[in-house]
From TrEMBL:
Taxonomic source organism: Laceyella sediminis
Gene3D superfamilies noted in UniProt: 1.10.260.50, Aspartate Aminotransferase, domain 1 (3.90.1150.10), Type I PLP-dependent aspartate aminotransferase-like (Major domain) (3.40.640.10)
Name of this chain's protein: cysteine desulfurase
Catalysed transformations (reactions): (sulfur carrier)-H + L-cysteine = (sulfur carrier)-SH + L-alanine
Listed EC numbers: 2.8.1.7
Lineage: Bacteria, Bacillati, Bacillota, Bacilli, Bacillales
Length: 386
């Protein structure tokens, strides 16, 4: 039987159109985009086309608002550290949430070591940021707010537009990590009201090794990498032309498909959840029941550790996750679930199931059938009653 891949929250396959766009820049049009001769300018033109494709996909006013990076993690680090350092004359306070991606939380901890103060706003039991507490956290020394658009583990959608409205007339910069959000929910950066927004290529069927940071016109941040002045001095390094070209092609395609795909994935997700609830039982849904990513189910199965379920499914060539792929290899309870007030048992019992463009109703039904067998076996080994 064909393997079942349900870990799109970790990564996605490169779609054929993106791969086709990339191929010439590995062996034929391999010029350095910084070279002024025609061979280099061929790469330069391809990169600028990709910049326009990314800008259009997120509703940016101009392609100059897009800076290419190597990943969503680098984009988050550049946004937070770059903004904090640039604005330290105006204050030293940063506000973020307790459920951010590790690349945001670790960047904040790094900034704390540099003398910045960080407030980690709590979330409710659904993983939603408490807006009143976020508002109360703001001071006259606050220079940056960073709240993710969608949680990478439990899929909860955060009130980004409301936060954007709250900060609209203030000098505080607003950053959102939209790596999981982009391609799943239609949006524009203008509508969200953000100053900085992070993207990653491999979550939208582009290649690994490419990401982008939207920097609103007029916003200034400090670069992290210094050297040849690429990306208008914001990110020195020879540009990864093939990956950027593939990222641009993937962005163009996914922006055309996002509304239809949102509806399709929502229907598949809900079908999967209904079957698991009724046919397996003793399971909790983690995250907001409706304000969540259309392709995300984060579930805690009573009495069985998520990693045990994952390993049994893996033997059947069914691939899911027990949390964030960025924390793979760390047998630790999810900081997201603990911040939501879940018990240690619930956190260890969690499984993240994420769907994508190749997921079909037939695959989901096969998955649930196999999961039923796995759960019957694992629960038969447990002394607990279910």
């Amino acid at each position: 039987m064909k393997p079942i891949y349900l870990d799109y929250g970790a990564t996605s396959p490169v779609r054929p159109e993106a791969l086709e766009a990339m191929l010439p820049f590995f062996s034929q049009a391999y010029g350095n985009s910084g070279s002024i001769h025609d061979f280099g300018q061929q790469s330069r033109e391809a990169i600028e086309t990709a910049r326009k494709q990314v800008a259009q996909a997120i509703g940016a006013s101009t392609a100059r608002e897009i800076i290419f990076t190597s990943s969503g993690t680098e984009s988050n680090n550049l946004a937070l550290i770059g903004a904090a350092r640039k604005r330290k004359a105006f204050g030293n306070h940063i506000v973020t949430s307790s459920v951010e991606h590790p690349s945001v939380l670790e960047a904040c901890r790094f900034l704390e070591r540099e003398g910045f103060e960080v407030t980690y706003v709590p979330v409710d039991s659904n993983g939603l940021v408490k807006l009143d507490q976020l508002k109360q956290a703001l001071t006259d020394r606050t220079i940056l707010v960073s709240v993710m658009a969608a949680n990478n583990e439990v899929g909860t959608l955060q009130p980004i537009r409301e936060i954007g409205q709250l900060l609209k007339d203030s000098p505080i910069l607003f950053h959102t990590d939209a790596v999981q959000y982009f391609g799943k929910v239609p949006f524009s950066v203008i509508e969200l009201g953000v100053d900085l927004l992070s993207l990653g290529s491999h979550k939208v069927y582009g290649p690994k090794g490419a990401g982008a940071l939207f920097i609103k016109k007029g916003v200034r941040i400090e670069p992290l990498l210094h050297g040849g002045g690429q990306e208008r001095g914001m990110r020195a390094s020879t540009l990864n032309t093939p990956a950027i070209v593939g990222f641009g092609a993937a962005c163009q395609l996914i922006s055309q498909e996002v509304a239809d795909e949102q509806a399709r994935l929502t229907a598949l997700r809900d079908h999967c959840w209904r079957r698991i609830q009724s046919e397996i039982g003793d399971v909790d849904l983690n995250g907001h029941p409706s304000d969540r990513l259309p392709n995300n189910l984060n579930l805690s199965f009573h009495g069985v550790e998520g990693q045990a379920i994952l390993l049994e499914l893996n033997r059947k060539q069914i691939y899911v996750s027990s949390g964030s792929a960025c924390s793979a290899g760390k047998h630790a309870a999810s900081h997201v679930l603990l911040a939501m007030g879940k018990s240690l048992d619930t956190a260890f019992q969690s499984l993240r199931i994420t769907f994508g463009k190749d997921t079909t109703l037939e695959l989901i039904d096969r998955f649930v059938d196999e999961l039923k067998e796995v759960m019957h076996y694992l629960r038969s080994l447990s002394p607990q009653e279910h």
